[in-house]
Design a protein that fits this description.
This protein is mainly alpha-helical. The chain has helices at residues 41-48, 59-83, 88-96, 98-111, 122-130; strands spanning 3-5, 12-14. It folds into 2 domains: 1-37; 41-130, no CATH class. It contains 5 helices and 2 strands. Strand 1 and strand 2 form a beta hairpin. The radius of gyration is 18 Å and the shape is flat.
């Protein structure tokens, strides 16, 4: 299955699509060459789903979000120190990523066919977040691995 990236929204679509199903942008025949994804495009796509609590997220998407968020959070105190802002940027970064972090975790729970409410149980949710996706579609939507 050959996939390409939409010229309008950079979502991955099938190379035979005449228009992007997400944004409706027409896809000229010249764009049907497989191109590597721009670096960080997955992170931007995840942040576009800022407060989307429906659907499913792959294990890879969830754990890469956690890794990048942690690495950036390790660098933010240096920015605070250099700009002499106290902990302003640390707090702003934490607050800005609170909702997307919860949303991607809920979608990850959906990927294992569990309700997002399982996030309230700390040790159990960690086990569920590490489990593989449920094969095929479930009550929360199609498997993102097959898309």
């Amino acid at each position: 299955m050959n996939m390409v990236f939409c010229r309008g929204c950079a979502k991955e679509i099938h190379n035979s699509a005449v228009a992007c199903p997400a944004c409706g942008a027409p896809q000229p025949a010249a764009t049907f060459t497989a191109a590597p994804a721009p670096a960080g495009i997955w992170y931007v796509e995840l942040l576009k789903k800022y407060a989307l609590f429906s659907g499913r997220s792959r294990r890879q998407e969830y754990w890469l979000f956690i890794l990048v968020t942690f690495l950036v959070y390790m660098l933010v105190p240096y920015l605070d120190r250099e700009l002499r802002t106290g902990t302003l940027f640390s707090y702003l970064y934490s607050v800005a990523l609170l909702v997307p972090g919860i949303a991607v975790a809920v979608r990850r729970m959906h990927d294992t066919d569990r309700s997002g409410w399982w996030l309230l149980f700390p040790l159990v949710n960690l086990i569920f977040l590490c489990q593989d996706s449920q094969r095929g579609p479930n009550r929360f939507g199609p498997n993102p691995k097959n898309a």
